[in-house]
Specification:
By secondary structure, this protein is mostly helical. It has one domain. Helix content is 65%, strand content 0%. The chain contains four helices and no strands. Helix 1 packs antiparallel against helix 2, helix 1 runs antiparallel to helix 4 and helix 2 packs antiparallel against helix 3. The chain starts with 20 loop residues before the first helix and ends in a 7-residue tail after the last helix. About 6% of the residues have low confidence.
């Protein structure tokens, strides 16, 4: 029975140890993407079929028809859910796509702010957390 000890790192190289934070934050971001995307799908469906759910402001600069907002939220939500599952499965491209979709979601929620302010602020905060978690991903932490 032989036990081998790991060899020390070569000169000039640092030993890298994962802390679990980056891996945990990536899983957190993926979970928030899936749940937040599903919420956006539901918000999109509500805007498509029940226009009276949202308050409309008559003099808002970025006002769009609620049906258009319904389609925006529905499509964006589906894309975010797909990207979230891709992040969970470890796809490298999914982190960049997730950051891009979270940025688009931030913009959409900002423009949607007068229709549903608390919802928009909560989703915007979650989008910022997703961007941060995906941007700080370290491959060696997993």
């Amino acid at each position: 029975m032989s036990t081998q000890t790991p060899s020390p790192p070569a000169a000039g190289q640092q030993e890298r140890r994962g802390t679990g934070w980056a891996g945990g934050l990536t899983v957190f971001a993926a979970a928030i993407m899936v749940v937040g995307g599903l919420w956006q799908v539901l918000a999109g469906i509500a805007a498509l079929f029940q226009n009276v759910v949202y308050v409309t402001t008559p003099s808002y600069v970025y006002s769009f028809d609620l049906t258009a907002w319904g389609w925006v939220h529905l499509i964006l939500g589906i894309l975010i859910v797909v990207a979230g599952f891709a992040v969970i499965s470890g796809q490298t491209w999914a982190r960049a796509v997730g950051i891009g979709l979270a940025c688009l979601s931030l913009l959409a929620q900002f423009l949607f702010l007068p229709y549903y302010p608390i919802w928009s602020l909560v989703i915007m905060a979650l989008d910022v957390a997703v961007i941060w978690a995906l941007a700080t991903y370290r491959r060696d932490a997993l």
